[in-house]
């Protein structure tokens, strides 16, 4: 399954990964080889076979809706590269041009 | 005088309880050995001597109190120094997941599996090396440099729990916590000549485990024998309300039993003995299976017909889940961030530069498999074939109690051997992936050495929640053989 450079760029954009041109070409080759190998799954007859999303028989367990203490804002913000007034600080969502 | 680090976990535990040695001296012995050997092994990313010595002193107090009233409960693990793979959070201690994108991250909480061991009184020596975000089979994908195999420093320890395996093999710690998503406890255990337990999915809480593939990730442990592993497993396993995929089933202490395996039916799947396996590996595994026969087990040939589909299934499902789990690393809440005038640029620059190549490769593979137009052909189809693979094991376990097979196609390969070919690296996992897809437990343990002196491992798999059966069978084998007692010359 040979990907195109456009497809690699599209995937990188979806995944928010900035790639160098050298990386784009390298991943194009490597991902195509891996997907080639995965293509054999297409030949397996899975009519009437349910998908396995989880190996467990559990349903999502519930608990009583009782408030309990969580992590403090100070502890959570302690790892942030930039924070201000109890909030995570980020650059503008849109740059000047948009 | 015996080096304290030569003791097994059980021997050390008994000596502590008898008052023959102190947790402080045991801990200091490990810290000294780490200082002496880790510069050439690089098993540790962070050593925590202050924490360890404080925990050791506290353990010594608990042991003293216990000797005064020995009827009280005291975990066998009290005072024992262990290491923790750096994908498990330990509050306020740097946790990197082997990645630059979490450089400097100090978790605000501790993983349940780790906390339960701390509550039992263990001493945490530090955090051990891992392939980045647990993605890899050699620990070469760590952003902080690879770990070296204690049996041959030019070779890999395996991965992704290469740091934990090397730490135990080199006598730097008495046990180590690892994780196994596609083989990452069993394969390094085999390469390093130690015993490694992959637990059943849902058996040990994943709270505080940095997620890679959420339907596959398991927390496991490595030590020098099944007897050493048993108390570690019992202490950390069991229901956790903080993990919604945690099984409610109780975890009784394992009765390891003796060497008589009459009544045990072990299945051997011929699909696992593939062309291209290192002949010495095949020979050692087959010889070990005969060993189980001589202990009384009945050996039967079984079929696991969908075995060769496990690799493509895993390398679609795991990357798909990883692409979702790693979306959170965006330079906003933790870790370093790289500039950008706008938020999207910051995301792309941070992730593009601070994730390593293998991680980016898997994120992209997963993103593609889940994307519009490809979801049905790739991800959905992989999930259906996963059902067939799981079904193979269910059918097999109607005929046998355990399954015996190789862990790896070869012994430890040299550093750099798979550098330019990611697919060749993925092929290292062919014998370990199926158990993760089915969610069943497995134990890897040494069964011999090749002509180069490199350890050869074998694995047993059991039905879901069958860890006790694995530990018993492995213990029986280790009571009758000495492979697990060999030590690398360091």
CATH architecture designation of chain B: Alpha-Beta Complex
CATH homologous superfamily assignment of chain B: Amidase signature (AS) domain
Radius of gyration of chain A: 23 Å
Largest sheet of chain A: 2 strands, antiparallel
The name of the CATH superfamily of the domain at 5-43 in chain A reads Glu-tRNAGln amidotransferase C subunit, N-terminal domain
Largest sheet of chain B: 11 strands, mixed
CATH class type of the domain at 5-43 in chain A:
Mainly Alpha
The parts of chain B where pLDDT drops under 50 for at least 5 residues are: none
Which two chains touch over the largest interface?
A-B, 54 and 71 residues
Total DSSP E strands of chain B? 11
Explain this structure:
The complex is a heterodimer of chains A (98) and B (490). Chain A is mainly alpha-helical. Chain A has a domain at 5-43: Histone, subunit A (Orthogonal Bundle), CATH 1.10.20.60. Chain A is built from three helices and two strands, in the order H-H-H-E-E. In chain A, strands 1-2 form a two-stranded antiparallel sheet. In chain A, a hairpin with a 2-residue loop joins strand 1 (83-84) and strand 2. Chain B is built from 15 helices and eleven strands. Chain B has one domain: Alpha-Beta Complex (Amidase signature (AS) enzymes), CATH 3.90.1300.10. The longest helix of chain B is centred in the C-terminal third of the chain and has 21 residues, at 376-396. Chain B is globular. In chain B, helix 4 links the parallel strand 2 (81-85) and strand 3 (123-128). Chain B is of the alpha/beta class. In chain B, helix 9 crosses helix 11 and helix 9 (310-325) crosses helix 12. An eleven-stranded mixed beta sheet of chain B has the order 1-3-2-4-6-5-10-11-9-7-8, with helices on both faces. Helix content of chain B is 38%, strand content 12%. Chains A and B meet through helix 1 and helix 2 of A and helix 9, helix 10, helix 11, helix 12 and helix 13 of B.
